[in-house]
Each structure stands twice: as structure tokens, then as C-alpha cells.
Amino acid sequence: MENKSKIMEVLKKNEERLLRFPNVIGTGVGYKFIKKKKTSTIAIIVYVSKKLKPKQLRKEQMIPTQIEGIPTDVKETKPVLLEEVDRKAKMRPAKGGISIAHKNVTAGTLSTRIIDALNGKRTILSCNHVIANLEPLGKASKGDSILQPGPADGGTDPADRIAGLERWEPMRSGTKVDAAIATPDNDADLSDEVLDFGVIEGEIIHPKVGVAVQKTGRTTGLTEGEIVAIVSSITVMTAKGNVTVYDVIDTYLYAKGGDSGSLTVEKGTNKPVGILFAGSMADPYDTFLIRMDNICQRLHIGFPACVHGILKDAETGEIISHGAIVYAENHYSAERKTRVKSNGEFGIGCFEKNKTYSLKIEAPYYETKTLSITPTTNWLDLGEVKLTPAALPVAAEIPIMQYMVAAFSQFILLTFWVIPYISRELKTVLLEERIWQS
User: Pick from 87, 146, 243, 344: most CB atoms within 10 A?
Assistant: First the structure.
């Protein structure tokens, strides 16, 4: 790897010439990206307002792949002046990163717009303790008013109601998820964008120690840090008692009260990592995230595309639910399989559009079904998915045969040994009785 200061010297010598190339609006030094993935190679970055195909340029207009032995990376960008946003004010359409809360809560952060995989609707994501009032530790019901801004920031019901509470993961010890969703009263009141990040359409990131992340929240806005640990369990204090949460992410990421719900993404790709739900009272940089893959799996939500279906018996038409699971290969659900709901419904999110997946459906006593799916919109509804009952395994017939053989053996034993033996003994007793009496 070349020394960064040496690369900067090379850039300074060539900067004026680079800025004369078509659409070039800036230069810099940084990591080279290939197919949106960061590499370890340090390169001269050339920022352009629009990338052009080679056939649209003359040879002398094409940015060289190397300058004095230093690789280049052409990056398309459209920078704008960042306007000061009051994250605690009322905003319609509402974007991720601003104030929101249940009518009986103070204020937290609207994470992002996300798709409800059970009905295809756009919905609001945040923490349970922000928009579901710590249910079941606190009281909340489906349809409760969700206010934007939250009550602590002046929000009142019904004037600032933006949505009704839809569903949540219960906030009790043993959970992996502090999250809930709410359905907007008016779809137009919810933006697809998240402040600082734009529209989130990327794949979910599986968290690893050392990954650079950034979050955007109601109180501290945009902050950057990194993942420092994958936590097996952590006990957090709430206003209604302690709760032990499992499988969370520990980050070195600055946050304060009111930032709960902040969407956290991988820096450089904006791929979702999780949502911020807790912080240390001793250190504002020690913060914890709920994993996005756990959230999507438990709440049946996702982005940019979701898949929905209802399982039924191919012969009887009855709903199949008990023990049934659904997952897709090359997808987060292959590791975190989605359980089918009691009404036979399943919903899985976070599929890429126009990409083909193998969706596998497994249920006890049924043959495994594999479907090839290619989502092209935000919601792919498969309708009724019918499973064929599995044939009785040969292994299941063995105990029956063993029982029949055992029963036949008992019959032979009784017929040819036990009954004759009892008969002989009885005759002997009767004979002895007569002899005694005489």
C-alpha cells in the first residue's frame, strides 16, 4: 500500500488537469470501491457529476486508470448544501431520523420506512419502547396513536397523529428484538427517505467486529463509529424494570436519550445493520443496536422487496402452521428461518429486486417445497402455497411389523405352552384333591 501523503502529493501535481475532464467536480484520496464494496487499496478518487460510458468519450477525455502508478477510482456524486433540519419539529412527509413516539411516551427516533411483508404496505419502524410503550411491561394496543413529533417535542393527539400501532415484539427478558411497526393513517405522510442516508434499498449487513457504521437520530443527528463487539446478552434498565436482551451489537457510536430507534448503517454502503436501542450511562459512546436481520425475521418486515404467502394442505385445503418454516438460500433467512404464523401466513423481507432466490418451505409430515422467486416490486404475494402430505416413511412401518410379530408369538406361546401347562397343573391339583378326600 502506498503512503497516503505520497499519494496526496501525486494528486496535488495532477489535480488541475483532472478537474478539466468532463463532469469532474472534485478529487481526493481514499479507499477504492469495486462494485460498491470497499477494498484495501488506497486510490486517487475522482468525483464526477455523472459517469459516462467509454463510447461517449474521446480517448483523451477518459480518466486514466493509474496516475504515476497510483490507481484511480471514479465516483459519481451529486453533493448539495445540507440544510439545517429541526429533527424535533413536525415533518410531512416524515423521514427517518426525526422525533416520533407513542402517545404515552416522551420521544424517540423514527428509524425508517419499511415494507410490511404480510400486506405489502409501507410502514414505520422504531423501537418497542418508543412506539409501543414497552408492551407488555407498559400498556399499548393495536391502533394506538403514534405522534410525530413525540409528546416531549410538543406532539399532541390527534393533531400530530401520523400512524396507528400495528404490531410489536414483546419487551420481556429473553427477547432479541426491541422493535415495533406502525401503519400511517395517510401513506403520503411517510417519506421513503432517511435523513443523511437517502432511500435505504441495500441488503442487510451481518455485523462483524470492526465494521464502520453511522447512525442518524432525533437528538444527536448523524454520528459515526464502529462495531466493537457482538453481544450474547445484555441486561438493560427500563422505567418498568430490567430486561435481558440477547444477540445484540455493541458499538462505539455517540448517542443520547431520544436517539432510540436511530437507523444504523454500514458507512460507505448505507446497508442496514440495526437500530439503536440502548446506551451506557457511563459513556455516551457505548451504545447498543438490535440486529436488523432479527427485527425483519420477528416482525415479518423488510426492504426493498418482501415475499408473502399462506400455507395450505394440498389435499384438504386446511391451514398449515404448526412447526412450519420458510427461508431462502443466499439470504439472511437461510440462517434465521422464519416461522409461519398460526393463521398459515408467512412474510419475509429484504430481497433484492430482479434477483432470483430459491424459497424453501418445510413443515412436519409434508414434503419440502422449493419455489423459484424473482421479486420485481416491493411486495410479491404468492397467494396460497400448497404442500403435499409426505408418504409414511418405511421406518415408521417397522414398529408395526414388530408389534404384529410379537403378538403372533404371544398367541403361539399361549396356545401351545401356557394353556396346556395350566391344564396339566389343574388336572394334577384336582387329582390330588380327590386322593386326599379319599
Answer: 146
CA distance 161 to 147: 4
pLDDT at position 407, please?
66
CATH annotation of 4-76: 3.30.300
DSSP state of 50: S
Closest CA to 273 of 288, 256, 254, 255: 288
What does the domain layout of the chain look like in residue ranges?
4-76, 84-300, 304-387, 399-438
Does residue 303 contact residue 124 with C-beta atoms inside 8 Å? no
pLDDT in tens, 313-365: 999 999 999 899 999 988 988 888 999 999 999 999 999 899 999 999 999 99
Peptide bond preceding 71 in cis form (omega within 30 of 0): no
Per-residue pLDDT reduced to its tens digit, 275-295: 999 987 778 888 999 999 999
Q: Is the pLDDT of residue 75 over 60?
A: yes
Mean pLDDT of the chain: 86
β-pair partners for 387: 313
Which listed CATH number (3.40.50.200, 3.40.50.150, 3.30.1330.60, 2.60.40.1120) goes with 304-387? 2.60.40.1120
Among 265, 298, 263, residue whose Cα is nearest residue 277: 263
Per DSSP, the three-state class of 105 is: coil
The three cell numbers of residue 110 are 423514527
Cα 312 from Cα 331, distance rounded (Å): 24
The answer to whether the predicted template modeling score (pTM) of the entire model surpasses 0.85 is no
Dist. CA 350–CA 361, nearest whole Å: 18
Note whether 251 and 219 are within 8 A (CB): no
User: Among candidates 393, 319, 324, 333, which has minimal Cα distance to 362?
Assistant: 324
User: Which CATH number describes the domain made up of 84-300?
Assistant: 2.40.10.10
Number of H helices and number of E strands within the chain?
Answer: 5, 28
